[in-house]
Amino acid sequence: MIEWILLAFMSFLPPLIYMVWIRNTEKYHRERWKPVLLCFLWGASIAVIAAVILEVILGFSLAVSIHDSSMIPLLTVIVVAPIAEEFTKPLALRLKSVKKEIDELEDGLIYGAVAGLGFSATENLLYGASFFSKGLLVFFILIIMRSFGGCLLHASATAWTGYGYGQTIMKHASFIRIIPYFALAIFVHGFYNFLVSFEMIGTLTGLAAAFSFVLISITIVRKKIRTLDEQSG
Fold first, then answer.
1. Mapping DSSP to helix (H, G, I), strand (E, B) and coil, where does residue 24 land?
2. What count of other Cβ atoms lies within 10 Å of the Cβ of residue 94?
3. pLDDT digits 0-9 by tens, 1-27
4. Is 51 helix (H, G, I), strand (E, B) or coil?
5. Where in the chain are the domains?
6. Long-range CB contacts for residues 129-134, cutoff 8 Å, separation at least 24
7. Whole-model pTM?
């Protein structure tokens, strides 16, 4: 029982801290906590379930269309998972109580990032459950690594789709405007997954490159939030 309490605590605490960090990046007109928490809960629940279902469907389609079965695991990691997850997470912004709060361009970035953090919390929980069998020390190391890389990945990737969706609301633009940002989110997610594919470029090298990449990615997102916030403020 203590182990599961520890797992839940370590899985959800870092994403919640990041959520506050992202939300407080704004200096002017910070987002209300209710829609922020709603986005987080969407990412942690409905988005996870929907992503699993979509990954199964896309994975099956991939399996029947690819003759070289050895390529399927890699394509699943760098193509299928990013498409499925980056599609379900930002749907949180379509919720009525969230959508009405998007009245500045930076809001889409914030709500998208928060939805991604909710997703990462549940993902930490699921992965962390399998880490227990490797011993307590390994568990702590792996969950800390996920709390950095995985959390910031989901936040920085989904923020871009949120930004595209925010533009459709603020500028009364076509949904086509979202596509480039959705593609960017998939690329960020897929490239990170590629870097942590240990068999391809080595464990330590892959982790170092992935963590560097995701740190740069979240820095760009927060800088964009601050710039837009100063302009609107």
1. coil
2. 10
3. 777 888 899 999 999 999 999 999 999
4. helix
5. 2-227
6. 129/7, 132/3, 132/7
7. 0.93
